[in-house]
Amino acid sequence: MVRRLVPDCDVRFLQSQCGSGKGAAMVTAVAHRLAAQHTERQRILDTLRLSREQLFEVKRRMTEEMARGLSKQTHDQTSVKMLPTYVQSTLNGTEQGDFLALDLGGSSFRVLLVQLKSEKKQKVDMHQKIYRIDQETMQGTGEELFDHIVYCIADFLDYMGMRGASLPLGFTFSFPCDQTKLDEVTFFLDFTCIS
């Protein structure tokens, strides 16, 4: 039975006190099998280890390809496709106030209120509500979709007791788009272009 379970292992039967060597043979077979698997894993992983110099070369090539991907002249000839984000600055940890975060993807639209409070440690409170987007709205016109988004935002602000508040927001739109400026984008929904 042991030879059938692990045919590539060296099975040795050792005498036990009761005269049966089955338990010792099983342990020996399993130990040999695990050792062989470990050796094979190490052999494969060794081919994937990179030296410090190789890692710097990978970094250099990635940086070069990303720069080429952002370049209008070579954008189509690069292996790493890049899109400019038009982000003008990054966070530094001193931000405070209320912000809306919008996430549209698939059949749902999530609205979040993110409240950053400046204390000894930055404190973040988040409140969210998820709205369903029905099939008719998803397959309708861009105007219908964005009307629905406005309705959801207004409903959320009412829910949070902030009706009429004017808040900065970030918008995640999980669909293909072509962004040409910070405040200008063309979305591609079901092969329909919305500017």
Automatic annotation (TrEMBL):
Pfam family, one: Hexokinase_1
Protein name per UniProt: Phosphotransferase
E.C. numbers: 2.7.1.-
Homology family: Belongs to the hexokinase family.
SUPFAM superfamilies cross-referenced by the UniProt entry: Actin-like ATPase domain
Residue ranges constituting the Hexokinase N-terminal domain according to the UniProt record: 42-186
Record's keyword terms, sorted: ATP-binding, Glycolysis, Kinase, Nucleotide-binding, Transferase
PROSITE patterns: HEXOKINASE_2
Chain ranges passing through the membrane: none
InterPro entries: ATPase_NBD, Hexokinase, Hexokinase_N
Pathway entry: Carbohydrate metabolism; hexose metabolism
Catalytic activity: D-glucose + ATP = D-glucose 6-phosphate + ADP + H(+); a D-hexose + ATP = a D-hexose 6-phosphate + ADP + H(+)
